[in-house]
Amino acid sequence: MKRTATLILLLALLCGCTAAPSQSGDTSLQRYEATFLTLFDTVTTIVGYAETEDAFTGTAQAIHDELLEYHQLYDIYNEYDGINNIKTINDHAWEHPVEVDQRIIDLLLFSKDLYAKNQGKVNIAMGSVLSLWHDAREDGIADPEQAALPDSNALEQAAAHMNIDSIQIDQEKGTVFLSDPQVKLDVGAIAKGYAVAQVCRSAPSGLLISVGGNVCPTGPKPENGQPWVVGIQDPDNAEQYLHTIYVKDLSVVTSGDYQRYYTVDGVPYHHIIDPDTRYPANYWRSVTILCPDSGVADALSTALFTLRQEEGQALLDAFQAEAMWVCRDGTVLYSPGFQAYIRV
Hints:
Blueprint: E1 10-13, E2 30-39, E3 42-50, H1 53-74, H2 86-92, E4 98-99, H3 102-117, H4 127-142, H5 152-159, E5 167-170, E6 175-178, H6 191-202, E7 208-211, E8 214-217, E9 228-234, E10 237-247, E11 251-256, E12 261-264, E13 267-270, E14 284-291, H7 294-305, H8 309-319, E15 322-327, E16 332-334
Antiparallel strand pairs: 1-2, 2-3, 3-7, 4-6, 5-6, 7-8, 8-11, 9-10, 11-14, 12-13, 14-15, 15-16
Helix pairs in contact: 1-6, 6-7, 7-8
């Protein structure tokens, strides 16, 4: 998550849109789409149906404003007036307990619980390692001829300070303390999906909310009760889908090596770092998760990206989720129930 940009709201009827009847026979609903460029350093799109453009605008703006609150709370790069956020924790919680919003406490507890269930493959305490890769990637993108990997000794030293138990939470006082001064939090593998899940719980039914690679419906299409159609990108071609799938009550989250990467000596290095090796995982091109909870799906997409299929399937079974893996050679693999959602 990076510096908040100027809000851009693009609101229009989708191409070819006409009035569509609702389940009750109401022919007054029309389909609208709003796009924001202010949240979680990615594109947010809200699709829904309303009787008027003003009605939809109000709904979309309310969802944006709630997501913006989560964006600011979970930001690790920027400060905001009157807010103690994740950056505040990294900057000061090793000195003294920092009082934070309950939504931060809830995210940290959620993340610690998932850590215990995902073989430690999603660790919000590995910020010191991830920051070395982030800085190397930013430098490499800015100056490709000087692109370099993070220093191996620095990575090893940083890896000695990623114990998730160093995050000490006092729920009664609403504070967070880092018992290891060199531990840094990075919630990027969970925060976006978690925030989407929280917002969707209170959002009106019949919307499709997409924040980057996190897509969450709040129920079927209201005009006819049909499922939404969501595309899964081909890692080799941003203009093509490998599949389109039907969803009504399942979140769709994809992690891929094509989203954020840089190149060193002709070799691409993406942003999904295996906590065991401290280097980018190299099993898959992408992993797509279907799961009711967008926060769980976000974490699973990262965890499965760093695991072989058999290990990943065990995690899916534990969370009653489905997955599609795209192998390095382009082969596509599926969990047992995934193909039932593919649009034929």
